[in-house]
């Protein structure tokens, strides 16, 4: 099977990692993958694609912003030729831009490949005219949960046979309990017995940082040794830091910045990980990564989490109020066994191998190919 991925983005953010996991897994299973991404301006996605050993077309600019009719027509002509000559079986889209473009390059082709759109955010389920037009004219749609599938059926009148569920996954080989967690505690001067509560997220409006700070104020009354860790970067950091400085919690709140290589150690060091906003990836990947590292999660029921987190077993769901969040944190701190349950759940239900196998099953069914 030859899969053409259209990904109108140049940064390593949002759904880039989970889509790349599928592409890499399919390539390892013997399928051919060609990935088209935005090359202008250059970003952090390019080296990841090269490292994964995926096919590329450097001559395709795939500009996402601005009006570039010459570039657009050149890309269209080259991709149509590539699809015909290289026998592409399926075009896999992920954003509205590449979905529109994918539909256009296939229009009028004799025996066109299957057009598939994966929906990564709940906002892409809003009953808007543009979505309705695209979704109804697409061969198949992939969503991450049964709830999202039902939303598509209810809001867009799409036949259930065209909607497939591909549950989220996490790299359990990378995200696991690691001894380096002690280095994170040493970094902030926290003893082993001191509870660490963390929020790993871009620091911006809608991610729940202010809510976490207020709830931590209540929790710290019962757990005076507790620390709150904000992990990530973003446009809201300066304002949040100022708010922390003006509070009575300044000495117990830490900003760890953006972490990459030692991110598993950060998760593993936490007693509780928070997820308080869906962000640009509806799978709420930070929650899955935390569970894989043996850390229970306290979260709002956003994105696909209602089908990934087991309330009362691998963490707790809370309402978006200070009192509810504080109560959820207290409950998880009182039940440390949730951490081991979270790790077991990640290994059994959220492994990448399961997701890749399901993706292959879906694509082979859609293309009618049996075997490679």
Provide the gyration radius in Å: 22 Å
- CATH level-3 fold name of the largest domain: Rossmann fold
Gross CATH architecture of the largest domain: 3-Layer(aba) Sandwich
Outline type: elongated
Q: How many domains is the backbone divided into?
A: 2
Structural class: alpha/beta
Low-confidence runs of at least 5 consecutive residues: none
Let me know the largest β-sheet: 6 strands, parallel
Helix and strand run: EHEHHEHEHEHEHEHEHEHEHEEHHH
Q: Determine the strand fraction and express it as a percent band.
A: 5-15%
How are the strands of the largest sheet arranged? Answer: 2-1-3-4-5-6
State the CATH class of the largest domain: Alpha Beta
Mean pLDDT: 94
Superfamily (CATH H level) name of the largest domain? Glycogen Phosphorylase B
Structural overview:
With 372 residues, this protein is of the alpha/beta class. The chain has two domains: 2-168 and 352-367, Glycogen Phosphorylase B (Rossmann fold, 3-Layer(aba) Sandwich), CATH 3.40.50.2000; 181-349, Rossmann fold. The protein is 41% helix and 14% strand. The strands form two sheets. Strands 2-1-3-4-5-6 form a six-stranded parallel beta sheet, sandwiched between helices. α11 links the parallel β10 and β11 (297-299). The longest helix is centred in the N-terminal third of the chain and has 17 residues, at 69-85. The mean pLDDT is 94.
Any chance you could write out the topology, listing elements then pairs?
Blueprint (H helix, E strand, L loop, with lengths): L1 E6 L8 H13 L3 E6 L7 H7 L17 H17 L4 E4 L2 H11 L7 E5 L10 H8 L3 E4 L2 H11 L6 E3 L15 H8 L7 E5 L8 H14 L4 E5 L5 H9 L7 E5 L5 H7 L2 E4 L9 H8 L4 E3 L15 E3 L4 H12 L3 H13 L2 H16 L5
Parallel strand pairs: 1-2, 1-3, 3-4, 4-5, 5-6, 7-8, 7-10, 8-9, 10-11, 11-12
Helix pairs in contact: 1-14, 3-4, 7-10, 8-12, 11-13
